[in-house]
Amino acid sequence: MEDFAAVSGISRPTLSKFFNDPGSVRVSTKKRIEEALEKYDYQPNLYAINQNRRLTKNIGVVVPYLSDPFFAKIARVIEDNILETGYKPVLLGSHGRPELEIENLENLRSIKPAGVLLAPLGRASDRAHVDTFCNDVPSVLFDANIDGIGAPFVGSNNEQSVGIMVDYLCRTGEPPTFFEMKSPTNPNAFKRRNAYIASMEALGHEPNLIQAAGEGWEFEEIGFQEGRRVVRGGKLPTNTILCSNDRLAIGFLSAAFEEGVRVGLEPECTLRVAGHDDHPFSRYTCPTLTTVSQDYEAIAKRSVETLFERIEGKTTADSQEETLFDGRLVMRASA
Amino acid sequence: MEDFAAVSGISRPTLSKFFNDPGSVRVSTKKRIEEALEKYDYQPNLYAINQNRRLTKNIGVVVPYLSDPFFAKIARVIEDNILETGYKPVLLGSHGRPELEIENLENLRSIKPAGVLLAPLGRASDRAHVDTFCNDVPSVLFDANIDGIGAPFVGSNNEQSVGIMVDYLCRTGEPPTFFEMKSPTNPNAFKRRNAYIASMEALGHEPNLIQAAGEGWEFEEIGFQEGRRVVRGGKLPTNTILCSNDRLAIGFLSAAFEEGVRVGLEPECTLRVAGHDDHPFSRYTCPTLTTVSQDYEAIAKRSVETLFERIEGKTTADSQEETLFDGRLVMRASA
DNA sequence: ATTAATTCTTTACGCGAGTAAAGTTTTATA
DNA sequence: TATAAAACTTTACTCGCGTAAAGAATTAAT
């Protein structure tokens, strides 16, 4: 940088200022620097920069599973939102493992990020560890909330989204039976279960739950196995299934197909199946999956905004507000 | 670190050595350090460390699309392999955009990584830029090769994998028609096309190509649209379709289902569809997709090994060897 | 026990920036 | 045009660690 200062005819401190925020220098000097930059193509050393900065311009983004298209999608939108602010997103996936989630957070710590956006594993997360982390580093939780953590939360309004789906299903056919995992890892699952029960009761129907055994994140497989069992058993309370999420529904549909059960709205169909999330693949299932779309854009945008409010100290650390976005019914062929 | 040296009773240079490679100090001192570490939990500053190291312990991994389950899968396996070596993987996705691919590489440069594993976009990649990068930084290409780049390549043996699939299909029914994109971004697509043609001719059959219009990485949609057109048109050369990749096949199957065309091996089916890659979702399509599995583990492992050979200077920079792994036929219900 | 080979400690400098302070030049305001 | 404000230059120190060199302490080999 010393050398570049010499050849460009601009003092090193000014250059330093420029690289931190190009807008903080006079337009004329900014132009001179940019011209010199073209000519000598110098690039400040990332490590030296960050060594002396209290906070870097990095923002960590941690999700449970990077290979889950749902998280991949929301992570991508969040990435875009962060880039627009001039910060650099650092994506990390926890592969569904609590140890890795913690390790990711610790690694982020050593990067001294300006803030962190965390979609926690949920039930499996090390609550205490996440909590201390959120107290040390400006953080915002998204997708899944952990109660009692000192960080704002941005996510979907499961009451509303499950509500409109139950409404829709009841209006157009038999009331749905809820298909879920017995002991879900994801906190949203519990909210959806409760929302289902509440909606059903509000409409004067009796709630029915089918709870699949199985742990982990292999939702399609669990949906498939339990779906096959259920379809074979043939003793469904109603002819309509509402799955707790699309991945379960994808497995369920696959099982139904294999068992020769026709799913959909056509007269010859004996079953209706709906999902939740508008998973990228739900557009291509057979039949295409009726589901509730989460407002990815809004969630991503608000998460980033909320994080920057925390970073800039506009909100107090203990303000634990919760922002929920409504879902949108996506009507397709399966229900 | 100075402070930690004081309280732990070990000199700073020795500590420095320890953190670089815990095995490089005497076991007795290693133990003493670890005990002190428990007690005072000190963590060296990442930026200060890397500022003075010529090469960091980071390894960049760049793939075209992190949200594509195929890349997510192979990236994950590669991650594991890197972690085993004590290095730190840094995952980056290019979102299918050549500018972002270049930006990712430039960002990696400023991180001074020990090496980079790159799955290039392919045809869209900025060949010259990638080439200079590979000359500056020890790199290995995987998944997709770019001819004339000075870096080793590790990938699938498309000749073999398409070959066994064509063999299988011809042996068990009508010879396949090849379904692909007219102008694919991915270099593998060309190899598969040629492999298909060669295999068909070797078996004495006439090759037939269906080439879908459309650009970009929305393969399912392209497969769906063109699949519907083809199925509706009804003038297929044979009753068997071999798709250039699983994502096209997933779209195709969805279209076939919607059009009421039964796909599979059962007597009532009028069409067979096969794919390529053993995409994570191919297990759950309707019917389940017969495909060729790439040897993810082997490709990941060898990629990492090859990279370390380059890093350690065992291979010359211009050695441009190519390692290909055979695919494995995965017989399911669709063909 | 003696010698040689390892491993540590001490001391000291370097990396590439951030940043503070004081003085100088440029630009905006009156 | 005078004056104040803003932006810049100079100088100098800091950050936290890598690393080299020389000598002291420990361990292994004879």
Sum up the overall morphology of chain A in one term: elongated
Structural class of the helix and strand makeup of chain A? alpha/beta
Instruction: Quickly count the domains of chain A.
Output: 3
What letter string, H or E per element, gives the SSE order of chain A?
HHHHEHEHEHEEHEHEHEHEEHEE
Largest sheet of chain A: 6 strands, parallel
Q: Approximately how much helix is present in the residues of chain A?
A: 40-55%
Strand content of chain A: 5-15%
Annotated CATH topology of the largest domain in chain A: Rossmann fold
Radius of gyration of chain A: 24 Å
Largest interface: A-B, 41 and 41 residues
The CATH architecture assignment of the largest domain in chain A turns out to be 3-Layer(aba) Sandwich
Cα distance spanning the termini of chain A: 63 Å
What is the level 1 CATH name of the largest domain in chain A?
A: Alpha Beta
Strand tally of chain A: 12
- In DSSP terms (H or I, runs of 4 or more residues), the helix count of chain A works out at 12
Oligomer: homodimer
**Mean of the pLDDT scores of chain A?**
91
Strand order of the largest sheet of chain A: 2-1-3-4-5-11
